[in-house]
Amino acid sequence: MRQNAPRVAPGSDRRIAVVGGGWAGIAAAVALAQAGAAVTVYEAARTLGGRARRVALEGIDLDNGQHILVGAYRATLEAMRTVGADPGALLLRQPLSLEIAGRFSLRLPRLPAPLHLVAGLAQAKGLTVAERLRIVRFVLATAARRYRLAADVAVPALLAVHRQLGRPTDHLWEPLCVAALNTPLVSASAQVLLNVLRDTLGAGRAASDLLLPRRDLSRLFPEPGARFVEARGGRVLLGRRIERLAPDGDGIAIDSERHEAAIVACAPHHAAQLLERSGLLPGLRGQLGAFAFEPIYTCYLQYDAAVALPHPMLGLREGLLQWAFDRGALDGRRGLVAAVVSARGAHEELEHGAFAATAHRELASALGGLSQPVWSHVIAERRATFSCTPGLARPGNATELPRLFLAGDYTAGDHPATLEGAVRSGLAAARLALAPTSPRRGRPPIGPPS
Ligand SMILES: Cc1cc2nc3c(=O)[nH]c(=O)nc-3n(C[C@H](O)[C@H](O)[C@H](O)COP(=O)(O)OP(=O)(O)OC[C@H]3O[C@@H](n4cnc5c(N)ncnc54)[C@H](O)[C@@H]3O)c2cc1C
Fold first, then answer.
1. Whether 315 and 367 share a structural domain
2. Which atom of ligand 1 sits closest to the CA of residue 410?
3. Looking at the structure, do residues 233 and 341 belong to the same domain, yes or no?
4. Do 106 and 188 belong together in one domain?
5. I want to staple 108 with a disulfide (CB 3.0 to 4.6 A). Which of 42, 96, 125, 353 is the partner?
6. Is residue 6 part of a domain?
7. CATH number reported for the structural domain that contains residue 422 in this entry
């Protein structure tokens, strides 16, 4: 993995613990194992992947929620390659296309950036010529300012200044903002949205490609990552919820085992609870406890095998649903649709049965008729991501305890809560955990091997 981590001698018994086997924790563990450290991953659940993991439904392997990746996820794609998970085989790559049923269609051709955007907008359906020109001007103006705002504001304030309200917002910016930041437009951070634009539409053409998983999420990276760690002498322990951490000399004790350093790679509320139970870092606990969260609902509907969507990913804007994914086109599960609603909204009041019935009705209306699904299942992830609001204070990877580090999609960085943010954070925490910090380095490792 390209991450400039300091190397320790192969076979070294520098023991480093990672609490949490989500994408951040596994990315950290892989980097540590690659650098030669003796890694132990403690994961509370029985399946690796955290908020991006496999679940079994109706006897088949699905995901806790439909995910999309983009070409700009460089660290994630590199991490996958490092552990032998081939992105080319595991992800369906296609040029960015936004297809909002009956309203809007934008497909970016394979041209160099920003020509791909200009050419795509020239062909876009659902916007007037004047609206399309306003969008191009907005993108060029923000690019000229290197996508930086003097002060962060909510997205509508930025869009109003650049005359994007109305259909450009309804058809383009709101769907992109909610998909990327999982935060309602009115309260989303304009700076983070610009960071996403910089890394996707503003970067090379391939950066804005959509990458749709063809296998369940645990198989994309967390499980091959764990095998990579184990093949280098590390341990990945499932079903191990850590209750307490304790500073121990110049290391950290976990479950009566001592480690030279520990990386807490849990979601912020879980990290706060762990620190509270451990009686550690009250200031940081307060900061972690202050995060607000946004839900993501995924409704799986199994139709007759002949049912297919017109596109693998279809936008919907007439009611509750925002996106529908054709799992048949992705992983061969013909007739299976994953319908998604991101961020807060009135749908949170619905019983799951009513939610599934609404999802079916809206799909049937968008597709011009559908027979009842054979089965349906709703997964509500109520704390799917943090609310990505303007000027949000996010903690760094280092803590006041020199051998305790944080990793997770919520730590300080340019990204909203995404797989890429999680992987980058894990890599950054691993670099810190491996860095020499005290003149006592090189002494025998702390704690007896278990
Ligand atoms: C439904 C849904 C859809 C999403 N869609 C997208 C998308 O399309 N694209 C995208 O990029 N991102 C998406 N995300 C966000 C992405 O999944 C997250 O940003 C990412 O998975 C966070 O990874 P993480 O490692 O930081 O945290 P987590 O995944 O939360 O991992 C933390 C791990 O720590 C474990 N843990 C917690 N406490 C303890 C303890 N005390 N002891 C041991 N283990 C513990 C947990 O079990 C968990 O496995 C989505 C998220 C959800 C929920």
1. yes
2. 26
3. no
4. yes
5. 96
6. no
7. 3.50.50.60
Name which of 115-124, 390-399, 402-411, 434-443 the model is least confident about: 434-443
When pLDDT is cut at 50, 70 and 90, the band that residue 2 belongs to is very low
CA of 349 to the centre of ligand 1 (A): 24
* Beta carbons within 10 angstroms of residue 439's beta carbon: 7
pLDDT of residue 259: 96
Dist. CA 351 → ligand 1 center (Å): 24
Q: Within 200-259, where are the H helices?
A: 217-220, 222-231
- Residue ID of nearest Cα to ligand 1 atom 49: 50
Is there a contact between 340 and 321 (Cβ–Cβ < 8 Å)? yes
CA of 350 to the centre of ligand 1 (A): 24
Tell me how crowded residue 30 is: count the other CB atoms within 10 A of its CB: 31
List pLDDT tens digits, range 178-201.
Answer: 999 999 999 999 999 999 999 998
How far, in Å, is the centroid of ligand 1 from the Cα of 181? 15
Buried b (16+ CB within 10 A) or exposed e, 270-306: bbbbbbeebebbeebbeebeebebbbbbbbbbbbeee
Calpha distance 416→200 (Å, rounded)? 13
Ligand 1, pocket-test mutation among 23, 41, 51, most atoms within 8 A of CB: 51
Q: Is 381 in the pocket of ligand 1 (CB under 6 A)?
A: yes
Domain extent, residue 380, equals 293-386
* Assigned domain for 275 exists: yes
Please identify, by atom number, the ligand 1 atom nearest to the C-alpha of residue 273: 41
pLDDT, one tens digit per residue, over 274-283 is 999 999 999 9
Ligand 1 centre to CA of 229 (Å) is 19
Per-residue pLDDT at 7 exceeds 60 = no
Residue of the nearest CA to atom 2 in ligand 1? 65
Residues 152 and 284 in one domain: no
pLDDT > 60? residue 441 = no
Same domain, 309 and 195: no
